[in-house]
Amino acid sequence: MFEGTSLYSLRIDHNLSNNNRLMFRANVSPSTVTGIEVGGQDQPFGQNAYSRTSQQTYRDVAGTAQDTWTIGNNRVNQFRFQYARRGLSYFYNTAIPGGSDPAVNIPGFAFFGREPYSYIQRVEQRYQFTDNFSWTIGRHNTKFGGDFNYLPITATFTVNYGGVYDFGAFGAASLGFVNPDPNHLPNFPNLSPVQSYGAGLPGDFIQGLGSPSDSFTNRPIGIFWQDSWRIRPNFTLNYGVRYDVEIPPKFKPPTALAQAGYNSLGLQKGIQTDKNNIQPRLGVAWDPKGDGTNVVRASYGVFYDHPLLGLYFLGDASDGSTSGQLAFGGTGVCKNPNAMFGQGNPANLNAIPIFQGLPINDTNLSDPCVVSSSPATAAALGYLPTKQQFQALNFPQSVFLNQNYLNPATFLPLAFQPFGYPQSKNFVYAYAQQANLSVEHDFGGGLALSLAYNFNGGRHLNRPINANTIRGDFMMRNLRAAIADGASQPTDSPFTVTGCNVGVGGPYVPQRSQTSSAPPELTLPSRWHCYRIPLRHPALRPYCHSFSSNTV
After folding, report:
1. Regarding beta strands 164-166 and 103-106, do their DSSP bridges make them parallel or antiparallel, or are they unpaired?
2. Are 331 and 353 in contact (CB under 8 A)?
3. Which uninterrupted H or E stretch holds 221?
4. What is the pLDDT of residue 538?
């Protein structure tokens, strides 16, 4: 592990006259840290292998020029310009080959492979213009001003692009081990997380893919006015107001099909301008006796937050269409009951065959791992069996991008659709209400007592939610109908129903066909005729999007 951070600064002051002063300040701060253990994504410190460590490099530069002009004996104007640049490079461990392998998480035992949040490359610049004017008028000390910021940003964020496998305990029944005489024989033991890893049975697999790069600009603007009024020698009233507004970036719209899904779920790319961010402030200071031994102070204010620029980035660079995240459960080993019909089995597209490097992209129906018999679909998977992952970059024809899995030429029913991080259309800026009350008493002789109460209440705090959740009750109803018709077993997962019929238990459909973003008029290839059912029925909606919203 290495850590090296240097700080360099320079300041120059120059008096143009008795009433006018110039100041210039510059700072440079290069920093490099290696061997970082990240605590995110449930990675506990002390269980990360050396391959899971990462390295971070900052190159920060800032310069400020300020002019302070005293006008007469009761007015001061202060103008300030600032330029700042922050360059960040965050990479997985490149010192050993294992640093670029898919991440493997075995909770309680080990975490190794590529650090999931890497790599990140970001350059954020800030051009800031600020002007404040102070004016003393009798018993009033008034101040007003404003500031304008221009922030161009360029970033690349490949979260989970190397792939992440999670291993947990694995039930013996899921492996087909059924106790023939549970009254007299012990049950087969379950596999521990370590044994599951040794057997090649992950619980899930997560991978990002698409275009992880983006660039945009943001322009925050703020103005304020405040006054301190000394009403009496022992009573001062402070009051003021601030107004902030941001001119956010505008992004290209998603694909037409994704846009329909956005509209249905109340989502959007980016955050609209919030125009009502008015922030009043009020404070008092009172000396009841006027002798300086007792002071009562109270204040209240509203303070609006600025949304994280990362929300804008994720909303555009990970929109679930041109780029997004894949999530596959470990639902079973390879099997293809559809081979006799000349079809592959989409259920083979799960974490277990992917981790084991099995030929799910083959089109030879004699292989039980075939996902699709279509050469175009198999090629569009972009599956890299020797790397246990899918091609993440420079592969726009991927079946997982741009809703290509609904294209008749590369059609593939998916249970776990690519998801992204758009924002809610009702997103509003978070704010805090802050209040303070304090009482101070001077006993003399160097002894004083102070009692204070502080309140800080956050409102409209944004949070991520699943905007299109699975209806578990409908999924189980579908499975029970398939079991009653003999198309599924009681030990099967609701996600692995492959039959299609109206049986004694009611209708059931393949869960791999259910795509919430598919329009009702979608026409599928004839070999998938069984899937031509109302795909947008609420019972058949797997999740496809998560987004940042707000609580009220």
Report:
1. parallel
2. no
3. strand 213-232
4. 33
